[in-house]
């Protein structure tokens, strides 16, 4: 805003114009009176002269203001259309300068914002186009309105897919991909792509765009990550199996050597104890291998419609627990024998954690299209190391534990399309949550 000392206000200009006009009218009247010696006639002629001069003076004075208003109107129309390149120049040194200055500052801010927005959009488009996750955005009619480079490569050999109906592209894809899209939910699927087996995770989300519901499909390639995780898991399993085998084979080897030495000395008094110990270790090793086989050969779940109340009453006959809240009134579908076994394993761990039996709880809650069963205890909880390895088969911190309880529960949950998670509780204890999809 310009300093007030350097401006002549619109009010001042108007007052000066009226003063000049009155001065001209008075002077004209006096001059005509002097020439005509008739005051009435002089006044009449003076009034006529002023009437003729007034529009001309008003036009001369307002012409610049009207031109400015037209320029402002055109500039605002350009702003509305997204063109912020206009600015106005004026040196009237009155209040209109403030309006012009504010207009020009607004245009400058809008230009900078548009440039910044353009740069952000360019960055976002670069990131989205080059992300390895294939993105496909479809309109309500099923036509593709956006597909990044990974989507073009996955569905159309690198060619553009915008404007094509997504269903037409899907028809040419392998059966596992079509089946995954047909299920209508997030899931993993594997198919042969580029001459090798590839695993993808499919996710879909709906949102409103320009007042219409659009669907975004995301296909994330997980092959390399799953391979790394598989190798890491097998390394953990091998370490645990090696430890368990050594725990049995080392004493068997030592006892066999001791037995042979006693036979050489013909000292038979200690042989019975040696053979009993060898038999006990062999029996333990046999049980270990049998348990391994049960995990490796988990049968396909046989889904049944389950009512919560009788299921929980039957579960309570195995291990006691306090029911936390009311279970959902809706029915669910899962394999009752397998889910019961998974919960028995979790409840057994809760009772063996050192928690008071009356503090072992079970809560069943439905969250959207998922149902979550949470077993809580008030034992010591788990360290970060134990939490990271508790679901690995044969990992156990118990002296007589097989390390298969939670691993089997995990296998059962994943066979149902669900998951299992462990977390320490505030105030001490552990929560094990078993989450399954609602059919």
UniProtKB/TrEMBL annotation:
Catalyzed chemical reaction(s): ATP + protein L-histidine = ADP + protein N-phospho-L-histidine
Keywords (A to Z) from UniProt: ATP-binding, Kinase, Membrane, Nucleotide-binding, Phosphoprotein, Transferase, Transmembrane, Transmembrane helix, Two-component regulatory system
Alphabetical list of Gene3D superfamilies matching this protein: 6.10.340.10, Histidine kinase-like ATPase, C-terminal domain (3.30.565.10)
Residues annotated as transmembrane? 40-58
Query: Which PROSITE patterns does the UniProt record give?
Result: HAMP, HIS_KIN
Looking at the keywords, is Ubl conjugation present? no
Coiled-coil segments: none
Pfam families to which the protein is assigned, alphabetical? HATPase_c
Q: Which residues form the HAMP domain?
A: 60-115
Location comes to: Membrane
Residues in domain Histidine kinase? 240-439
Enzyme class per UniProt: transferase
Reported EC number(s) for this entry are 2.7.13.3
Matches recorded under InterPro entries: BphY/WalK/GraS-like, HAMP_dom, HATPase_C_sf, HATPase_dom, His_kinase_dom, HisK_dim/P_sf, PAS-like_dom_sf, Sig_transdc_His_kin-like_C
**A single MF term (Gene Ontology):** ATP binding
Q: Protein name, please? A: histidine kinase
């Amino acid at each position: 805003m310009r300093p007030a000392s350097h401006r002549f206000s619109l009010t001042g200009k108007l007052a000066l114009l009226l003063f000049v006009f009155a001065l001209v009218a008075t002077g004209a009247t006096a001059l005509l009176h002097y020439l005509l010696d008739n005051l009435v006639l002089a006044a009449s002629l003076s009034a006529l002269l002023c009437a003729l001069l007034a529009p001309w003076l008003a036009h001369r004075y307002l012409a610049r203001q009207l031109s400015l208003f037209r320029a402002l109107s055109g500039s605002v129309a350009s702003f509305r259309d997204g063109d912020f390149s206009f600015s106005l120049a004026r040196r009237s040194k009155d209040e209109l300068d403030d309006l012009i200055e504010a207009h020009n500052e607004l245009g400058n801010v809008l230009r900078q914002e548009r440039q910044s927005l353009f740069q952000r959009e360019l960055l976002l488009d670069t990131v989205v186009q080059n992300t390895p996750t294939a993105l496909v955005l479809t309109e309500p009619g099923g036509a593709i309105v956006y597909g990044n480079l990974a989507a073009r490569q996955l569905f159309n050999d690198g060619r553009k897919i915008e404007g094509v109906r997504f269903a037409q592209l899907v028809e040419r894809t392998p059966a596992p991909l079509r089946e995954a899209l047909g299920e209508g939910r997030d899931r993993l699927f594997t198919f042969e792509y580029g001459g090798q087996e590839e695993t993808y995770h499919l996710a879909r989300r709906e949102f409103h765009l320009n007042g219409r519901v659009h669907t975004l499909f995301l296909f994330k390639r997980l092959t390399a990550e799953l391979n790394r995780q598989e190798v890491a898991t097998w390394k953990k399993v091998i370490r645990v199996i090696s430890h368990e085998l050594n725990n049995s084979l080392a004493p068997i080897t030592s006892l066999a050597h001791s037995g042979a030495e006693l036979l050489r000395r013909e000292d038979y008094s200690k042989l019975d104890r040696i053979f009993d110990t060898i038999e006990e270790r062999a029996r333990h090793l046999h049980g270990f291998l049998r348990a391994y086989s049960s995990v490796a050969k988990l049968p396909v779940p046989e889904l049944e419609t389950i009512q919560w109340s009788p299921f929980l009453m039957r579960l309570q006959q195995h291990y006691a627990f306090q029911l936390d809240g009311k279970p959902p009134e809706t029915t669910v579908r899962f394999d009752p024998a397998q889910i019961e076994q998974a919960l028995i394993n979790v409840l057994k761990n809760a009772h063996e954690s050192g928690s008071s039996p009356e503090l072992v709880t079970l809560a069943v809650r439905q969250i959207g299209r998922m149902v979550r069963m949470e077993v809580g205890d008030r034992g010591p909880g788990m360290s970060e190391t134990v939490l990271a390895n508790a679901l690995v088969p044969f990992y156990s911190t118990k002296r007589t534990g097989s390390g298969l309880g939670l691993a089997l529960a995990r296998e059962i949950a994943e066979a149902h399309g669900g998951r299992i998670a462990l977390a320490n509780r505030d105030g001490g204890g552990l929560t094990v949550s078993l989450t399954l999809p609602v059919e």
